[in-house]
Structure formats: structure tokens, C-alpha cells
Design a protein that fits this description.
Strand content: 15-25%
Structural class: alpha+beta
Largest sheet: 7 strands, mixed, barrel
Order of helices and strands: EEEEEEHHEEHEEEHHHH
CATH architecture of one domain: Beta Barrel
Strand order of the largest sheet: 1-2-8-11-10-9-7
CATH class of one domain: Mainly Beta
Number of strands: 11
Length: about 325
């Protein structure tokens, strides 16, 4: 199971529920090194002292806040802990809101909450209350030396802590150029056909059927390079990868929707069960008919061959008669 990254308690009112925080996600990004293409030597990232130009060991690196130019206040790990002990040890619930009312772009990183020692009963109470009311808890929590706004959500039998962006970190949606209706809007016919397509493509939520296919394809390409021995060969740019410079086309949305529904229908037909076999009598009759046709064709070919043989022999005999007549003369 994932490691514990934080220990503390959920706090709301006078209730205190001991919990531990565990990661609810993991990264599958490929770990790529930067190389010098001339000799394929790795390029390291060094921490350089900007005054001396020399490398600084990690033990000598501290964090500092610049309150004026070139003037710093140094902060240690203990300073971060002592800044607000209560904040660093509690998921402090501020209020409860309708879970469905939180816009999705506020969510950032999910974490699992697990009850710690003597926290099971309070955990179960909070979980069941939130489940029945359909509420999410908005809370403040300090993780990795940074305070986060967070939402406590119910999922199955667990509570999930999802860190969120603060309001000033979210750009105003009003700045977007969005369709305003009229010619830019969708017609009732288009909406009706689009709904049919959505209904046709609807299925149960099954995230395990999706994979990072780009990562898989990249790993296959890496494996192929290793097997072929081209471990240091740079692949030239493909012409197909160049961006298209064609102008924008007028989109016939109804035609696209019709074609999409047609393709879905053909695919469903291809996946349908195979047609039943014809009865034995009909199959036998077909075989007999096929046999008769084959016999007729064979007879025709034989007759044609005989006629051709007769013509050839007649042609051969004719010159012989002529030569005999000349001799007699």
C-alpha cells in the first residue's frame, strides 16, 4: 500500500478524528535524461553558487525569503513546523457545501484519508453523515510546507482529501471567447442528433479500459531501437508530423453527426451474432445445381476442343492435296 505522507486529525467543531494521509495517485511519466548529442554524455543539473560559480552540496543549501534585494531571512524545517503547529497537524473543516456545486477546475491532487488509532468511530460518523447529506467539507490543511484549500469527499467507504486551487489561482472564465448563440450556437436538429450519438456512445464508468497508449508506443519505439542496436541514432523528423497549413473549412455538423451515427451502427452490426446456417436440403440442392453447371461447362469445353482439333487436321490435309495435284500435272 502507498506510504504515509502526513499524520494529524480532522477537526470540525469539537470533534477530532485522528487520520493519516496517503497518496491516491501515481505518475507513469518516463524518466528521460538530458544528453549531449555529440558524445551521448549525460547533462547534469548542478546547483551553482552565483557568486563563486562553484557547485554547492545539498547539506549547505537552506531556504531564504528575500525581504529586500540581496537581503534574506533564512527558514529551517523547524521554522515551518513552528509557524503554526495546529495548522500543520489538522485538516481544519471550515464549512460544508453541496458536493456537486464545486467546479471541477478547482480540484488539484487527490489523497486517501485513513483512520489512525482510535479514529475509526469518528471517521465512520463523519463519512456516513456526509454520505447521507450529499455534502463535501471545505477545509484548510498544510502539506509539504504549503497551506491548501481542500475538499473532503465521500467515495465508497473512504474519505478522499482533494487539494484545491484558491480563488485567485483560477483565471476568470469570463475572459474566454465563448459561443454567444445565433449563428455560433447549435440548432435544435443538431442537438437532437448529437443526443442520439451521446446515447449510443454511453456506457458504464470503467477507467481500467483506458491506458496511456502514447507512453506504450514510446516504450515500443525505445525497445525497437535497443533490439536494432540504434541506441545512439537520432530519428529524423517525419514529413507527416509537420503542422498543416491549410485554411479552415466550413464544417457541416449535421453531416458529421449522421456519419458518426452510421459508423456506430455498422460497428454494432459487425459485432452482431453470425447468421444461421441454411437447412441441409437447401445446401444439398445448391450443391446439385452447382454440379450441373460445372458438368455443362465441361461438356461445352470438350465440344469446343473437338471442333478445334477437326479444323486443325483439315487445315493440315489441304496443303498435301494441293502438292499432289501439282505433281500429276
Amino acid at each position: 500500500m502507498s506510504r504515509i505522507i502526513w499524520k494529524g486529525a480532522i477537526s470540525f467543531g469539537l470533534v477530532n478524528i485522528p487520520v493519516v494521509v496517503k497518496p491516491a495517485s501515481r505518475s507513469h511519466t518516463l524518466d528521460l535524461d538530458m544528453l549531449d548529442k555529440r558524445d551521448m554524455a549525460p547533462i547534469g543539473y548542478q546547483r551553482i553558487n552565483k557568486h563563486t560559480g562553484k557547485t554547492v552540496e545539498s547539506d549547505n543549501i537552506v531556504k531564504g525569503y528575500a525581504y529586500e534585494k540581496d537581503e534574506y531571512v533564512v527558514l529551517s524545517d523547524e521554522d515551518f513546523r513552528q509557524a503554526n503547529v495546529e495548522a500543520t497537524q489538522t485538516v481544519d473543516i471550515v464549512s460544508f457545501v453541496e458536493a456537486a456545486s464545486i467546479p471541477p477546475y478547482y480540484f488539484e491532487t487527490p489523497y486517501y484519508l485513513e483512520p489512525d488509532k482510535r479514529g475509526e468511530r469518528g471517521y465512520a460518523l463523519l463519512h456516513e453523515t456526509m454520505r447521507r447529506t450529499g455534502r463535501a467539507a471545505l477545509a484548510l490543511v498544510v502539506l509539504r510546507n504549503r497551506q491548501h484549500l481542500a475538499a473532503l469527499l465521500v467515495f465508497g467507504k473512504a474519505l478522499v482529501l482533494n487539494t484545491m486551487r484558491f480563488a485567485d489561482e483560477v483565471l476568470p472564465i469570463e475572459e474566454l471567447s465563448l459561443p454567444k448563440g445565433g449563428k455560433q450556437g447549435a440548432s435544435p436538429r443538431e442537438v437532437d442528433m448529437a443526443r442520439k450519438l451521446v446515447d449510443d456512445m454511453s456506457e458504464e464508468w470503467a477507467p481500467e479500459q483506458f491506458r496511456d497508449t502514447y507512453r506504450d508506443d514510446l516504450l515500443k519505439l525505445i525497445d525497437a531501437k535497443i533490439k536494432s542496436g540504434n541506441t545512439h541514432l537520432l530519428t529524423p523528423a517525419s514529413k507527416d508530423s509537420a503542422p498543416s497549413s491549410k485554411g479552415a473549412k466550413v464544417i457541416d455538423m449535421m453531416a458529421l453527426l449522421r456519419d458518426s451515427l452510421g459508423k456506430r451502427g455498422r460497428r454494432a452490426g459487425a459485432e452482431a451474432p453470425a447468421a444461421k446456417k441454411a437447412p441441409a436440403r437447401k445446401v444439398a440442392a445448391k450443391k446439385v445445381a452447382t454440379k450441373k453447371v460445372a458438368t455443362k461447362k465441361a461438356a461445352t469445353k470438350t465440344a469446343a476442343a473437338k471442333a478445334a482439333t477437326r479444323k486443325t487436321s483439315a487445315a493440315r490435309k489441304t496443303p498435301a492435296k494441293r502438292s499432289t495435284a501439282k505433281k500429276a500435272a
